[in-house]
């Protein structure tokens, strides 16, 4: 711990040396002032239900603005079709898996997901034992057995029992538990430019696990409430118009084209509400 000798009695110095042992961290060369105000490190006073977290550096700014200053390549947030509510509050239906502990809060912050994964380091987006400076474990590769820990990051907010009970996507359990697919394979953690439900199926810049079907289609069609159609090849299985939803029994997947699917449509782009 740091020595308190010359500090004011109310000072609460915290030792960040342990950060240097964490494999995933912000480079030390950035310096503390890259993210903190010069006159001491003011602890952020923030009431989660009253708004997004303020910046640790600049009064009148939000945390995501501070991060966005350097992480501009997070362009995925600019005109998304669906998104984790960071730059804008969530709209539409409440995700059934969101835990009650989440209350009525309709936005989250970068630091709800990014930060240190253990109590030894002061809170903050400094360093973590988990890749991408995440606060909890998140297996992004396929082929791992589903446990509470494998996807602890997501399960921190989305109830594991709800996901595995197929309360939203009727084929969650089949993919996650039986086929051992990671959430990462289907979902983007930040936003999806083109698809609802943070689906990353059309995004070519990701893992490459999802390939086109025999007609070169690599897409998803929203087919109304808890219903959709997939055109893609994954784990060597072609999904050439495989559908799920109330009209199709859970596992009897129908074949078809978007045109032949009654009511099939591409999700409209989401209008973002003003801040
Ligand atoms: C990349 C941005 C970034 C850098 C660089 C950074 N911090 Fe932080 N730090 C944060 C954020 C964001 C928080 C608040 C996290 C939260 O609210 O959960 C924080 C929180 C803290 C806290 C905890 C305050 C509290 O409320 O308990 C301390 C202490 C701290 N930082 C010290 C440092 C020191 C010392 C350095 C330089 C060695 C540093 N930080 C560098 C982003 C940064
Ligand atoms: C002053 C510029 C700066 C600010 C402000 C900043 N970062 Fe960073 N961040 C960096 C740099 C530089 C890296 C290291 C990039 C690399 O290694 O490729 C990094 C790395 C990261 C990584 C790990 C990236 C990876 O590929 O594993 C995450 C996550 C991250 N930052 C999130 C944040 C968040 C959240 C905030 C807001 C609290 C923030 N950063 C603020 C400059 C910044
Ligand atoms: C810090 C909390 C938090 C974490 C961690 C988190 N989410 Fe979310 N997620 C939310 C919130 C809040 C919403 C918005 C729900 C709403 O609008 O009611 C959301 C929405 C979603 C949606 C969109 C719901 C829809 O049908 O449009 C998906 C998909 C999703 N999350 C998947 C994930 C996955 C996968 C992970 C892990 C990689 C994850 N989330 C981690 C809080 C979180
Ligand atoms: C709901 C949780 C969640 C929130 C909120 C979130 N992230 Fe992330 N972020 C992740 C996860 C999980 C990964 C690693 C896996 C991936 O890339 O999907 C990641 C990866 C990253 C990376 C490294 C890879 C890349 O995409 O460049 C950066 C940088 C980053 N996040 C910055 C941010 C910033 C800045 C914010 C706030 C504007 C933010 N994140 C908000 C979960 C989140
Ligand atoms: C095979 C692809 C696939 C995988 C793997 C997958 N999901 Fe999903 N997920 C979907 C689809 C498709 C939807 C949209 C369902 C609908 O039509 O509403 C969805 C919806 C969601 C939602 C929004 C509704 C809700 O349940 O609250 C959350 C949250 C979610 N998934 C979390 C996860 C998590 C966490 C994992 C990993 C443990 C995961 N998903 C793995 C395809 C997938």
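Q: What amino acid sequence fits the structure above?
A:
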């Amino acid at each position: 711990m740091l020595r308190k000798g010359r500090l004011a009695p109310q000072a609460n110095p915290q030792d960040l040396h342990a950060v240097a042992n964490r494999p995933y961290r912000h480079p030390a060369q950035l310096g503390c002032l890259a993210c903190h105000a010069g006159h001491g490190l003011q602890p952020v006073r923030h009431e989660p239900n009253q708004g997004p977290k303020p910046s640790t550096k600049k009064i009148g700014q939000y945390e995501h603005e501070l991060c966005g200053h350097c992480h501009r390549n997070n362009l995925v947030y600019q005109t998304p079709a669906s998104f984790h509510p960071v730059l804008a509050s969530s709209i539409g239906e409440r995700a059934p898996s969101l835990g009650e502990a989440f209350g009525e809060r309709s936005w989250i912050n970068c630091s709800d997901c990014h930060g240190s994964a253990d109590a030894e380091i002061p809170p903050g987006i400094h360093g973590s034992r988990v890749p991408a400076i995440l606060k909890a474990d998140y297996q992004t590769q396929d082929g791992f057995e589903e446990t509470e820990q494998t996807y602890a990051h997501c399960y921190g907010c989305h109830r594991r029992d709800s996901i595995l009970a197929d309360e939203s996507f009727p084929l969650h359990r089949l993919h996650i538990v039986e086929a051992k697919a990671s959430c990462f394979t289907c979902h983007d953690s930040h936003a999806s430019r083109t698809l609802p439900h943070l689906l990353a199926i059309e995004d070519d810049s990701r893992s490459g696990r999802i390939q086109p079907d025999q007609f070169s289609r690599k897409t998803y069609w929203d087919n109304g409430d808890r219903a959709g159609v997939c055109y893609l090849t994954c784990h060597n299985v072609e999904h050439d118009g495989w559908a799920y939803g109330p009209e199709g029994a859970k596992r009897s997947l129908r074949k078809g084209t978007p045109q032949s699917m009654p009511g099939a449509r591409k999700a409209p782009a989401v209008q973002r509400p003003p801040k």
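Q: And what stands out in the fold?
A: The chain has a mean pLDDT of 81.
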